[in-house]
Design goal:
Layout: E1 3-10, H1 15-28, E2 32-38, E3 47-55, E4 68-73, H2 76-82, E5 86-95, H3 102-105, H4 115-122, E6 125-129, H5 131-138, H6 144-156, H7 163-170, H8 176-189
Parallel strand pairs: 1-4, 4-5, 5-6
Antiparallel strand pairs: 1-3, 2-3
Helix pairs in contact: 1-6, 1-7, 2-4, 5-6, 5-8, 6-8, 7-8
EC number: 1.2.7.8
Protein name: Indolepyruvate oxidoreductase subunit IorB
InterPro entries: IorB_Oxidoreductase, Pyrv/ketoisovalerate_OxRed_cat, Pyrv_flavodox_OxRed_cen
Length: 190
């Protein structure tokens, strides 16, 4: 059975790195995996998405509307923007974190204050936490992407695989400890 995952967020949040670690881990553990990146305006804080599909045999990385088993939103408004891709009964993992787009910063638009509530009203399975706070308590706010990855891994039921070795293979040695802690902490939150 093929699983379809959609990572959504804002440029600079480490979405592509988290997707790459997940993809490499799933391949290492015997799954056929396809990944597609859409950078958008990543360098300017624009929307970034990555689609990952895995299973016994996968032919395409592309996910249509209503097909994602899990959406991992690194920023809560991005969750609302991409929610139409989540299948009925799918899981939404949301970072309760705000990154204001340029239009909000210059006063053209207002950042909505009820995003999480609306998501919970429309999605049955929602996991919400502030990954930035979790990562900061661990010692490095930049590890929030790996905290979210840990929550996704738990939601997928693949937490028993050796993710520690995958972290070590994909990150510089000086980043091993914080990211191993982050992935384990994320697994506790889902």
């Amino acid at each position: 059975m093929t699983k379809s995952l959609l990572f959504v967020g804002v440029g600079g949040q480490g979405i592509i790195l988290a997707s790459k670690i997940l993809t490499e881990g799933l391949v290492k553990f015997g799954f056929d995996v396809k990944m597609s990146e859409v950078h958008g305006m990543a360098q300017r804080g624009g929307s970034v998405t990555t689609q990952v599909r895995f299973g016994e045999k996968v032919y395409s990385p592309l996910i249509g509307e209503g097909e994602a088993d899990v959406i991992v939103a690194f920023e809560k408004v991005e969750a609302a923007r991409w929610i139409k891709y989540l299948k009925k009964g799918g899981t939404l993992v949301v970072n309760d974190y705000e990154i204001y787009p340029q239009s909000v910063l210059v006063g053209q638009e207002v950042y909505p204050d009820d995003v999480i509530q609306k998501l919970k009203e429309n999605v049955e399975n929602v996991v919400v936490f502030n990954a930035a706070e979790v990562a900061e308590k661990l010692g490095n706010i930049k590890a929030q992407n790996i905290v979210l990855l840990g929550a996704l891994i738990k939601a997928l039921g693949v937490e028993n695989l050796d993710w520690e070795s995958v972290i070590k293979e994909n990150l510089p040695e000086k980043m091993h400890d914080i990211n191993i802690k982050a992935i384990k902490e994320g697994m506790k939150l889902s």
